[in-house]
Amino acid sequence: MPPSKSHQPSPLKVLIVDDESLIRCGLEKFVKNEGFTAFTAGSGTKALKIIEEQEPDIVLLDMKLQDSIDGLEILKVIKNSRPEIIVIMISGQRELYSAVAAMKLGARDYQEKPIDFDKLKETLDNIREEMSSTGGAEPGELQCVSEKMRKVFAITKRLAVKSDLTILILGESGTGKNYLCQKIHEMSNRRDYPYLQIGCSNIPDNLIESELFGYEKGAFTDARNSKKGLIEAANGGTILLDELGDMPYQFQSKILKLLEEKSFRPIGAIDDIPADVRILAATNHDLNAQVQHKEFRLDLFYRLNIATIELPPLRERLDDIPVLADSFLKTFCRKYDTGGKTIDEKGMKILQNHPWPGNVRQLKNLVEKLVVLSDSEIIAVEDIKENLEGVLVEVPVGKGAEEMGLPADLSLEAMEERFIRKAMDKSGGNQRKAADFLGLSRDALRYRLKKMGL
Ligand SMILES: Nc1ncnc2c1ncn2[C@@H]1O[C@H](COP(=O)(O)OP(=O)(O)O)[C@@H](O)[C@H]1O
Ligand SMILES: [Mg+2]
Hints:
Strand order of the largest sheet: 2-1-3-4-5
Largest sheet: 5 strands, parallel
CATH topology of the largest domain: Rossmann fold
Shape: globular
Bound molecules: adenosine-5'-diphosphate, magnesium ion
Strand content: 5-15%
Radius of gyration: 24 Å
CATH architecture of the largest domain: 3-Layer(aba) Sandwich
Helix content: 40-55%
Distance between the termini: 52 Å
Mean pLDDT: 84
Number of helices: 19
């Protein structure tokens, strides 16, 4: 059968299970907006009925239901009868411990209440990409053409197969650290075991130890039963300590011990337990500087510094931009069922001239926005400019680069160039107007334009 251009796969089905109707409605709206077909259930009994009748692809499952059947029970039933269904648990802060149990039972991920919709969106998008055979890179393949990323990929391949080796992944926010870690897991012979991530910055200091290591019965007042931690839940697999730079200082020595002795001790336990997991760590912080400020332990830094992969910011690998943009176009055209849309050469040039402080994540978000708002097959250059400008306008003036969401190492010169380009764009290329915008004399502007090669 010849491939027909208009053919789009039908939207994935998402079942939302939560006993709070407000959350149910909110999630339903969100999920529909994201292009899924939504079903909802307020009780476990109803959830099981819908799973039987509608065969959903994804289930968003609240941990606690008013019902006699709670979230974990439903998860068990799903994983027994329909293991291909992807389950994302939703838990309150207090239920984090059961979230660990849920991951162990085969849940893909857990989202804490209040729900972070950006994070949930990213998770759902990634699932959708995985489920559509045509889009994205093959497992163990990275989308990269630039010299820099090819080097990164070569190193990654070499290190990934050493399946006990701890790797530290560095890079600005949005450069693809989590993406790379997932690939590392898939490339290693741990791929058939769990891959778990723990965000060190969104877990309260006092919870991180019990999250990772678990605890014994009676270890503290609430500990009526013993609980396993993520390390045990991931047995045989890989754990990513995400945003490692934010890990509490006091806890870092325990991570060092874990790395050096490959064992850990649950809270309240007498003996150490051997840990059969690979540890990956990622951060967008400058660990060197953190060591100097006594926020990060020097010994742990040395230990982690053995195998590092640094992801270059997007503005340093311009060749990747068209490749990534094309792949994101495919993804989002499918998601919104728009038919194929493209960005032409001129549009790509504009994208390649942008500094991308939010890196690949920002490019991905922009492409999504363009797909949604554009009504032509070739995305109009004006649309691109306008939406990039939106990104620039949001930058507040008079704060440190970090606070502005800009990379800290962006030079004054680069900033100047950006503002000048923007002023020239705004004034339609009229130098007098642009000079006015910038508060410069025409001569001063001309001098700078010349310096920039314009
Ligand atoms: N090389 C790549 N190819 C395709 N998608 C990518 C690539 N790098 C990053 N992404 C996507 O960009 C987004 C941000 O990546 P992520 O790994 O979360 O960044 P970080 O952890 O560094 O902040 C994710 O949606 C991810 O899937
Ligand atoms: Mg990340």
